[in-house]
Predict the 3D structure of the following.
Amino acid sequence: MNKATSVRSQKNVTDLLDVARIRADFPILARHINGKPLVYLDNAASSQMPQPVIDRLVRYQTQEHANIHRAVHTLSEHATAEFEEARRKAQRFINAKDEHEIIFTSGTTESINLVMHGYGRAFIKAGDEVIVTGLEHHSNIVPWQMLCQEKGAKLRVAPINDAGEILLDEYQKLFNDRTKFVALSHVSNALGTVNPVSEMIATAHQWDVPVLLDGAQAAPHLRLDVQALDCDFYAFSGHKICGPTGIGVLYGKRALLEKMQPFKGGGDMILSVTFEKTIYNTIPYKFEAGTPPIAAAIGMGSAMDYLNGIGLERIGAHETDLLNYATQQVGAIKGVRIIGTARHKAAVLSFLVEGVHPHDVGTILNEDGIAIRTGHHCAQPVMQRFGVPATARASFAFYNTLEEVDVLTEGIRKVQRMFG
Amino acid sequence: MSDIKQLYQEVILDHNKKPRNFGALDNPSHKAEGLNPLCGDHIFLTLQVRDDKVEAVAFQGEGCAICKASTSMMTTNVKGKTVEEAETLVQEFRDMATGKLNVQKQPNHLGRLAVFEGVKDLPSRVKCAILPWHTLHAAFNSVATTTTENEEEPMKSAGVTI
Ligand SMILES: Cc1ncc(COP(=O)(O)O)c(C=O)c1O
């Protein structure tokens, strides 16, 4: 695995993580659900927000709010500066070369759609081929399907094995002169597989094909370095890294972004407008039409500061401990099958309880305050690959504890007793 | 004991394990398929309606315990009833599951089906309980495939083929 994406599980690193103190930063973790302490294990769907980020949002709304890039008054200039500072925080968070390569979007989904419209519709033609993998979230399938349908292009899918790992040989065999784009998840949301993206990007680049990484599930867990990865686009969401909803990032290499078409037209994305002709603004503003979610962007910047304050390496190490322990404990329950047993995994445990539908598992666990996700996880092709309609999924964050894994394990046993 | 555990006990101990009328009728007069895409609940309903009466009904498919038990109990409850009586149950069941009918206080014909009242507190599971009823309604109206995707007005989407 690439140095840039490795999750190190070093005992000394983990020991430094003071989980009790970290938990005190998250007001919601003190809640009780159905009279039981909340055990929040649905972090892959959305993570919780720590007090410093909440405070930052409150300060912005109470003291600093104005529209940006538009006026000469103090508030507007200050809000603009904070918004642009958030852009630099995002730049550093993924180690992009240039702050102008950071585009604020509403989230991963919009980031991917922006590339589909801005790059795909401009450069992909009839007969061309787009490669995705069998692990993708619907948001990294459907836009490419729409593009292929519109253009008469072909969607090719790199298959996965029974462990939930992409078959690299098969992936490599998909390439030919017609291959024009690769869209691939960095970490799978349904199974937790960490894909060998460096190798996969290198393959694509040998064919001169750009690669988009869906980093929605990687950004919360791995130290990111888009320059080391050499990906062409990287997409992730604020709400999965302890930030607000409604904000996300698209990173793109400058040369690609410059030749792309804007996705949305409107204010802020122009340099000049006449009825005869509009001259588009430079990147990233060309892609940011209209008033952006200013507070959310600043809040996401604050969330990045928070994660950096703890350290992504320590976060990754603690989560690896949680995952290993959960895999061992839950996996040891007779009648439980773990779906997704890749060698490199991040913070996701998908499982089935024999004879019990995942939705019943989820409803009964909720009675004990345990929040997990059940269903197809917006990854129906993954479910089809494993021949199941749905799974139960526990997904961990750095603020989860080994004791919470025990509560989950006991909850699953209770489900089994009820269905006995 | 919470409503949910009560619901699960009744439902699971009985109908989930031993679903009644499981199978398919050979020459059904009416049939329909019900889909709950979000959960993967999937049922096939076959009916024999003669002289406006449900003479026989059977179901196949897979789903969660709430869906399976609701389907199983529906089949035992509508057998022998007229289409109109069955449609009344469809309406009352739906009203109960969505919290519009208080089975303790308001008159109704649900009887033991009232065990599903607890789903009204589980918005994400209402569709699981309603699916068979929705499918029955579709079968009476000769709609081949139906879905409970339209959450707000589950019965209104009858007729949508997906
Ligand atoms: C792998 C993956 N890609 C994309 C998304 C979509 O993210 P969002 O809903 O924030 O746009 C998710 C979120 O569920 C995800 O897990």
